[in-house]
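Lay summary. Proteins are chains of building blocks that fold into shapes, and those shapes determine what they do. In this project we predict the shape from the chain. Here is one chain we studied, written as its sequence of building blocks.
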Amino acid sequence: MQVVIATSALELGIDIGQMGAALLAGYPGTIAGTWQQAGRAGRSQETSLAVLITSASPLDQFLARHPEYFFERSPEQALINPNNLLILLGHLQCAAFELPFEHTESYGSLNRHDISEILEFLQDTGLLRKSGSKYFWMAENFPAAGISLRSASPNNIALQSFPGEKPVVIGEVDRQSAPWMVHPEAIYLHQCETYLVENLDLEMNLANLKPVEVDYYTRPQQETEIQLLVLMEHATTESTSKSFGEIIVTSQVVGYRKLRWGTNENLGYGNVSLPSSKLHG
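And here is the predicted shape, written in a compact code that computers can read:
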């Protein structure tokens, strides 16, 4: 028997044709993620098995006692704004790589005038070149390779370790995730190795880590505040009310807990002093 141990990256479509069973260690957090992980088994069209091993968390225990909540619901909908500038720039670069843009072309729901302005911007950066009435891809790189599956943000935090005299970059995390993933004193797992985050420099986009052997992991404690800017619509039903408008969500990691591996025993707390982040929606 052969066994593959993987992180939640298994949701992204790793195809192991001979996998006959999938064991999920804890509820992934979404119905879609659960089906994606379970669906890695049985790719050869033979009978397969998927088992969800619940943890002691309240959400896992609720699902163990109320499986109908999972099986009777549809997977969550993934909603994005394709006209978000960060997303749109990535899409346009990939499209131009596949086929040159005509200067009169529209794209999605945007008219040709809006697209023309963005194409001119990409030409100024050296990624596109206009020849006649067409914009051609000029960069050497493959644009899709530069689009992250985790975040639309172009800013990443480099994770630097010191196994010897010279530093080595072992990975990256997106800037939005850095405060809760690699805050100072956090335990970070990378390729089955455990690292302690010594410091996080958001101005330099750098986190310094050192290899350690510990019997615990850390869980960040985050405070979130929602501020209403503009209320556009409001409706009330028999059981609830719903509103639509503009808000600002302010989040800040203020501390962390140390939890023992296996038992989740609370081993202590720590404070974190990092700037807050704001999301306008």
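What the prediction tells us: The chain has three domains: 8-71, 85-146, 156-280.
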